[in-house]
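Lecture notes, part 5. Sequence design as translation. It can be helpful to think of inverse folding as translation between two languages: the language of shapes and the language of residues. The source text, in structure tokens, appears below.
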């Protein structure tokens, strides 16, 4: 049964003893729906919590389905670049150590396979996209991607030669639809049988196809390895289906109050929603950040 932490009553008094909390040595968080507020921005309270974590010497890692390039640009806009130590992008297939600049990439889908995926969905009212250098490229710009552009602060551009992207290995193919038609897209995805690529729902109008085994737990493992820790020493925050494995595997898994049922079910704790600065409230209490920063 979930241990529900009220946004109003949340305090260290409801958490484990300090000695047990001290076993957590690093924090990892999803972006959209988790670290970011509903406008896809870092609130003042969350920025203050990140500053306090940094001052306390607790490494912080972003874990996102976004790519490293766009995450880097957004971190600069949010003013948190100096407060982030690691970034796990593309659901774990990219990992960057910002302390050293080292980048690791892998788990690509073989050339041509995404062409087959597109053909499988071609009769449905969907839009396809592949990210290149932080830009969502698409064969045809349609209104199906407008919602994501508005809330996710991404750039979309039509690519007349989309085929060139399909002829080389890629990490991910995005498939967008009208949120009202999402059930249709989910049903079709369930019928996909080729084990060389899998589809995962990551938003109200988005399914992402990736190589099997690509999961945010990859980033969790790489973070632990980089710090010389076990995954049990990491606290992970998430809200969506693609956060479930990471939240379940981390030493302390925290689902947001606005999180999906699967992630809430495997979490150790339920934090307040992202609209209520749940990340900041939880980390501030767990690590006694308010006391440390006065």
């Amino acid at each position: 049964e979930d241990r529900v932490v009220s946004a109003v009553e949340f305090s260290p008094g409801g958490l484990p003893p300090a000695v047990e909390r001290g076993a957590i040595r690093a924090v990892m968080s999803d972006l959209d729906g988790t670290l970011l507020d509903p406008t896809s921005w870092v609130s003042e309270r969350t920025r203050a919590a990140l500053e306090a974590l940094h001052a306390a010497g607790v490494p912080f890692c972003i874990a996102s389905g976004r790519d490293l390039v766009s995450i880097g640009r957004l971190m600069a806009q949010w003013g948190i670049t100096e407060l982030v130590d690691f970034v796990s992008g593309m659901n774990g297939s990219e990992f960057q150590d910002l302390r050293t600049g080292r980048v690791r990439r892998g788990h690509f889908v073989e050339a041509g396979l995404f062409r087959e995926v597109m053909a499988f969905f071609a009769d449905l009212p969907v839009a396809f996209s592949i990210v290149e250098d932080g830009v969502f490229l698409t064969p045809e710009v349609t209104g199906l991607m407008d919602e994501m552009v508005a809330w996710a602060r991404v750039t979309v551009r039509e690519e007349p030669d989309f085929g060139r992207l399909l002829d080389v290995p890629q990490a991910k193919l995005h498939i967008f639809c009208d949120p009202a038609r999402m059930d249709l897209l989910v049903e079709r995805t369930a019928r996909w049988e080729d084990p060389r690529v899998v589809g995962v729902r990551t938003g109200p109008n988005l399914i992402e196809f990736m190589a099997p085994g690509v999961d945010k737990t990859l980033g969790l493992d790489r973070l632990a390895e980089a710090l010389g820790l076990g995954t049990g020493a990491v606290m992970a925050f998430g809200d969506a289906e693609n956060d479930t494995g990471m939240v379940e595997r981390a030493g302390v898994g925290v689902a947001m109050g606005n999180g999906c049922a699967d992630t809430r079910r495997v979490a150790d704790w339920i934090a307040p929603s992202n609209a209520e600065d749940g990340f900041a409230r939880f980390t501030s209490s767990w690590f006694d950040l308010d006391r440390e920063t006065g």
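The translated text above is only one of many valid answers, since several sequences can fold into similar shapes. The mean pLDDT is 91.
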